[in-house]
Known about the structure:
With 221 residues, the chain is α+β, with helices and mostly antiparallel strands.
Amino acid sequence: xxxxxxxxxxxxxxxxxxxxxxxxxxxxxxxxxxxxxSGGNCQPWRVDVAAGRAKKEITEAILSARRQGxxxxxxxxxxxxxxxxxxxxxxFQCGIALYSAMEIERGDAEARRQAWLxxxxxxxxxxxxxxxxxxxxxxxxxxxxxxxxxxxxxxAVEAGLATCIQASLxxxxxxxxxxLEIPDDFIxxxxxxxxxxxxxxxxxxxxxxxVPLEEFVSWHQ
Length: 221
Ligand SMILES: Cc1cc2nc3c(=O)[nH]c(=O)nc-3n(C[C@H](O)[C@H](O)[C@H](O)COP(=O)(O)O)c2cc1C
């Protein structure tokens, strides 16, 4: 598989097969991703891989916190407080397409809630990854984190694995950091589910679109 194929075939998968991914395989992917570039070659990423009991513990702790209404704040604001267009509209359309692929009616708030909770079950994936970076480094290094995460996602595609990058998994930093013993001088940036795609699942049968070049590229010569 070449780079273009990996980029074009990567997609967010939201239902995985009940099939383990050997630790050696995940290690191999992280061994590729560590070659991602970073400002000053600082390599700010810390990765915590959760499988088996550790992953289950995180799921249970988050779902239980949600049941008790014990909301937490992420350690950095990913989404804006108020949305502007065209981003509001794109996000809205993405949600519509996703729920329609799952055959969830627009007005069915409970079904949407249940679907959202799958984030915290890692969509049935055998592996959950958590990415954090030193708090002292500041937000510029979030760029490096993103580059690292996409590099990992592409390496996974080539290995026949699927991923879903999840900001939602950074929504409960206190719980995750406690379960995985992540020190508090790190901020939890993002999570990722990883495993083998369940190709029969309806939710995996939709592809998002992209705006054409003319909408975001300007040439100056
Ligand atoms: C930083 C980031 C955070 C995301 N968080 C979530 C999430 O919490 N839950 C989810 O289901 N998808 C999440 N996604 C997936 C996006 O919805 C998805 O990448 C986007 O709709 C484009 O679709 P594609 O990945 O299939 O190309 C996230 C993606 C990124 C890059």
